[in-house]
Write a structure and sequence with these properties.
Length: 213
Amino acid sequence: MAAVCIDLDGIRGRPRRLLSELDDSKRLLPEQRERLFGAVMTHAECVTVHVASPRRIDADGLHRTNLRLMAEALRGVEHVAERCLVDGFHLGPEAPEHARVVGGDRRSAAIAAASVVAKVTRDRLMAGPVAAAHPGFGFDKHVGYATPEHHAAIRRLGPSPMHRMSFDSLAYRDAADVSAADAAGEVAPGPATPVRVERAAPAQVASGAAPPG
C-alpha cells in the first residue's frame, strides 16, 4: 500500500507534462508506469509504502489488512499534507483525517500517483527478490498474477510461502490433490496491493485520464 504527497501546482515544464499522464496504474503500460514512478519519486514531497506478508493477510483477511495498511500509509504523509484522500474507503476514526474518493485513481493525481508507486514497487519485488527466493514459479514473468504458466507451476510445485492460503483457486486444489501437504492459496504480494491512499494538494492538476494491479 502506498501514499503520496505531491503538489502539482509547484511543478513546471516537462515533469508536469509527464505527471499529467497519471492514471489508474492498471490502465497504464509497464513502460508508462516506470516513467511515472521515476517522476513521482523525484517530485513528490513525501512517499510511503507499506507491505503485509501472505501469512498476515491469511490471518487478518485481505480487506482488513488493506484498511490497516492504508491508515499506516496515510500517517506517513499527514505531516506534510494539507488534505488527505483515500481511494474508495473510509478508514475509521483512528486513521488520520481523510476524505473518501470513489474511483480515486481516475479522479485524483495524488491517488493515481500512489497507485503507480504501489504497483511498480510490488511488481519489482515479485520479479526480483521473490523470484530469486522461489525459482521455478516464474514470478519474474507473471509477477504473481493468475496466468496459465503460474497455475501450471503451482500444480507442479505446490504453493510457495508467497501464496495466500486463504485465496481459493482451482490451481491450488489441483496441487492439493497431488500432495496432501499442499494447501490452496493465491499470490499475495507486495505493497502491494496497489495501493491507494493519498494526499491531494489544493492545486492538484487533473489526472491524465484517470490504481492497483
